[in-house]
Amino acid sequence: MGKPLKTIYPPVLLAAVILLLWEGGVRLAHLETWILPAPSEILRALWVNRSLMVQHMKPTLLETLAGLAAGTAAAIVLACVIQLSDWLRRALYPLLVGTQTVPIVAVAPLFIIWFGYGFFPKLLVVMLVTFFPVTVSLVEGLSSADADLVRLLRSIGAGKWRIFRTVRFPHALPYLFSGLKIAATYSVLGAVVAEWLGASNGLGVYLIRAQNAFAADEVFAVIVVITFYSVFLFVAVQVAARLIAPWAYRREREDEQAKGEMK
Predict the structure, then answer these.
(1) Which of 126, 169, 248, 261 has the fewest CB atoms within 10 Å, measured from its CB?
(2) pLDDT (tens digit, 9 = 90+) per residue, 159-183?
(3) What is the rounded CA–CA span in Å between residue 172 and residue 61?
């Protein structure tokens, strides 16, 4: 069995078992749809409401992608600044951690008050939930570069920028993608929360309307779409990481092979 199949089949098998148990449990207990719909009823709701769902999916996807891109760009700039200046590192890092203690549901309404119900406040919410994991991961990667290599470059007169460009940043790329995977999953959640608090369309709006109508099958249908977006973005980041930083995964394979030979 190839490695991709080995990676995929356990979660697929477990999900299939859970769905079968869910379907059987709901039918045996004769539960009403508005209490707990069976997976087959959720799929039916997805199909019946596909046109309306697609209308609400588009703005959420746009907010997610734009916010993730802007949050990642801000995180890369901030991490690089923190790494290049010890003073800024000491000054900014505690503030950076402090920003994550503020609940997003407390801040998002302020963005709506300041900037209205348009696209910009939703972009800010997604940026806020995505920039932190990317920044922290990248700072850790930049700080953990090979110390001997850094000392060697310093001994031949290389400056901070050259060391950063040739050693620290390439070393930190796998860390950047690790943070980006977390940020990608958070980004969809951020967009939905932003729409929930104030919007005229999007999956967050659809979710509220379905909840108010006690349409539990449609609520689960929205959850399925949100999960699909999150998994899709996670896989896209994984593929990008393997294309941009192939050496990290080559080293990982070599380590796994070495462990296998030792067993």
Answers:
(1) 261
(2) 888 888 888 888 899 999 999 999 9
(3) 28
